[in-house]
Amino acid sequence: MVVKVYGPFYASPKRVLVCLVEKEIEFETSPIDLFKGEHKDPEFLKLQPFGQVPVIQDGDYTLYESRAIIRYYAEKYKSQGTDLLGKTIEERGLVEQWLEVEASNYHPPLDNLVIQILFAPELGLPSDPKIIQESEEKLGKVLDVYEERLSKSKYLAGDFFSLADLSHLPFTYYLANSMEKEYMIKDRKHVSAWWDDISNRPSWKKVLQQFGAPF
Amino acid sequence: MVVKVYGAAYASPKRVLVCLVEKEVDFETIPIDLFKGEHKHPEFLKLQPFGTVPLIQDGDYTLYESRAIIRYYAEKYKSQGTALLGKTIEERGLVEQWLEVEAHNFHPPLNNLVLHILFASALGFPSDPKVIQESEEKLGKVLDIYEERLSKSKYLAGDFFSLADLSHLPFTQYMVTLLGKEYLIKDRKHVSAWWNDISNRPSWKKVLEFGTPF
Ligand SMILES: N[C@@H](CCC(=O)N[C@@H](CS)C(=O)NCC(=O)O)C(=O)O
Ligand SMILES: N[C@@H](CCC(=O)N[C@@H](CS)C(=O)NCC(=O)O)C(=O)O
């Protein structure tokens, strides 16, 4: 029985895909077209009542929220593929800390930039320069903290690649490639080296190759 | 060596306190006065570079982000005090799912209500009725999904109390006591029963002795 992942073309589901590749877990994908509103179909809402992707089905087990799904698989297949949670409970604590930083400090301003710069034009909505400016400032401050942290350890949670780094891949891909904001990474030496490292992992390249750049 | 928790008076640190009480872990608290800007002092920023509370120190181990800290202690003291992660990996997966729902769907609109209704004047920005209305609508929709979920299981992740429920305590306390929005809970039968249950746990009553979160 292979894992089924809904919505592989979008960014948040790519967190799950890259995790499954790192853990050497077989999966199949089921496309969901957000632009057609398929995530609000009653059948889909039975699986994911908030109407978002990703969702996974694994036998009769259903789970949503990308950062919950990656934790689940990292734990379930602890000794298969790349170890993504650190070796000790203390290392895992730091993985959790940086996963939370990604979700609560890094993601919200970056998500605003993505919506304002990439999606507003696509959806025919006006974009708001004030939100863009404020979000860029916030994100810059977060990246300054990352720069300092990454000057001391190779990855966010320590000297090992983990879910904390992996969780940054899909949305940072936008930042580094699609929004003319790559200087936010390039201007910070350690952040830049870190991004080169994690974005060149075979797992991420495979996800991009099979499912395209996130949009 | 007891765990040191910084900022016990505020809401997010209370997630950590209630978890430590449930896990029967000894702790002491170190006050941080946000209104005096103590969270932006260089000494504090060395420990927590983003300048927020909570932060814990446990021997020479330092950790921040409330939902990371509670996961750490729930795991470290798995077989002490209340089990908060479920019994199987699948149950833990559901605990993680509802912890994420709390963080991404429930918390942001509620936090907006807290900021605009309670703190706008203290923080010196105008409270925006449009934000208040939109946030209340969003929160209402989230609570409709909770109502449906809680009609099928006693707690969010299943028939066991977990971190997922615990994580809702501090900010939901604002909602029912200080925001005048208790009807958002009371009007939903299963949400209301769930709130009565979790907010009456001895652990939470004990934490409220540190004051209602503000
Ligand atoms: N916190 C959720 C967020 C998921 C999310 O925002 N997914 C987007 C696609 S990347 C989506 O489904 N958007 C449609 C919508 O929210 O209506 C997770 O990490 O799984
Ligand atoms: N995601 C953080 C949020 C912590 C947070 O927002 N703490 C508030 C007090 S409840 C704070 O320190 N605010 C001061 C500030 O952000 O300047 C966590 O859960 O630990």
List the keywords.
transferase (chain B); alpha+beta; 7% strand; Glutathione S-transferase Yfyf (Class Pi), Chain A, domain 2; glutathione binding (chain B); EC 2.5.1.18 (chain B); homodimer; 215 residues; binds glutathione
Polypeptide structure, described:
The structure is a homodimer. The first copy, chain A, is an alpha+beta fold and 215 residues long. Chain A has two domains: 3-83 and 205-211, 3-Layer(aba) Sandwich (Glutaredoxin), CATH 3.40.30; 89-201, Glutathione S-transferase Yfyf (Class Pi), Chain A, domain 2 (Up-down Bundle), CATH 1.20.1050. In chain A, 57% of the residues lie in helices and 7% in strands. The first copy, chain A, has ten helices and four strands. Chain A has helices at 11-22, 42-47, 66-76, 89-122, 129-150, 163-166, 169-177, 183-186, 189-199, 202-211, and strands at residues 3-6, 27-30, 55-58, 61-64. In chain A, 42% of the residues are buried. The mean pLDDT of chain A is 96. Chains A and B meet through strand 4, helix 3, helix 4 and helix 5 of A and strand 4, helix 3, helix 4 and helix 5 of B. Bound molecules: glutathione (2 copies).
